Amino acid sequence: MSYLENASVAVIGGGIGGLAAALAFSRFGAQVTVFEQAQALTEVGAGIQITPNGGRVLAALGLADRLDDHSLRAQAVQPRDGLSGRAIARFDLTGQVPSYRFFHRAALIGLLGSACRAAGVTFHLGARVGAVTTDGTVTAQGVTQRFDLVVGADGLHSVARGLLNDQRAPFFTGQVAWRGLVEGITADPVAQIWMAPGKHVVTYPLKDGLLNVVAVQERDHWAAEGWHHEDAPENLQAAFSDTGAELRNLIAGVDAPRLWGLFRHPVAQHWYRDRLAILGDAAHPTLPFLAQGANLALEDAWTLAAACAALPVNEALPRYQASRAPRVTRAIAAANANARNYHLGGLRARVAHAGLRTLGTIAPNA
Ligand code: FAD
Q1: Over the stretch 181-190, which tens digit does the pLDDT of each residue have?
Q2: Known catalytic residue: 204?
Q3: What separation in Å is there between the alpha carbon of 107 and the centre of ligand 1?
Q4: Atom number of ligand 1 nearest to Cα 159
Q5: CB distance 145 to 52 below 8 Å
Q6: Residues in domain FAD-binding (predicted)?
Q7: What are the strands of the beta sheet with 76-81, ordered from one edge?
């Protein structure tokens, strides 16, 4: 028996976390409605790494046999000296089950969105939720509806998080990231982490001859209005002009980069009240240096839906937060530590940069 049989569930946000939650709740028998402020299901940025923990959720959602059509199976992660180009280590990923994968974000969103539609999920697109209550009401486009449960999967600037916790603005992490694509590249499915003092670049191939590039630089402050904007390729090239020729050549191929200030919140203290729960970046935004933000959102989505199927909602929501908070807190601390490792701030990385060959414990992803 599922406590979700015919329960009405609203999901605010149609990103990776929201769509995974919509599909999971629907698989457990709920009638699900997604409110997404954008006019279409879409994602900013190009590539995303889905690690085996996220892959397990995609499999549980019934998508395992469709993943090869939408992604590449990763072979390895390879940290490199960004100045000499020399590979420092190679972490083999071919034995991972399920496979570690490189997706184009649009492909992952498309896969989740079409599975939701096939499962009967209702979508309200162009529907910004202006208000939500902990007793299950959602107001969008001037219409208020009541649900048995509301899931706030509305990202870094979540209205749902603000209702459950202090209404604080996210803080700047001291890091900016350019994101872009290089076309016409044939490369092995390997993620390269190019490390240099105060900066790093992660590159990995996507389907159709694209190379995904994320270039991160430390900065004192974020002066631009808003969280991201189009930037001139020359600014990206100038920021990495002190790196080696191989990396500079790759960066020169990025012709339409966007620049992001990386902001976050602490892990939320309160993830639920009454009939409202939050997940993904709404609950625990992270620096992307462990490639776990979306993977953790996938885990949240499945854990929340499974708890609500197994238990009455007043027992399920505390169980959900208790089981998730310690794990996401550890992952976020590891991502922060990777900022130091990748930017050659840690002792081990400094030793590696000085010419030794081992980087044994650096985390095998970016
Ligand atoms: P979001 O993706 O932010 O989705 C929120 C959705 O809610 C959006 O569609 C938004 O339009 C909608 N919304 C917001 N407010 C409202 C409202 N009031 N009403 C209606 N709709 C609303 N993670 C990984 O796992 N692997 C990676 O390789 C990886 N690489 C990254 C690289 C970079 C440079 C960055 C910045 C992040 C990376 N991440 C990665 C992190 C990952 O992108 C995020 O953690 C993940 O997308 C969060 O998903 P989400 O669904 O919780 O939130």
Answers
A1: 999 888 899 9
A2: yes
A3: 15
A4: 18
A5: no
A6: 7-333
A7: 91-92, 76-81, 190-196, 199-206, 210-218, 171-183, 258-264, 228-230
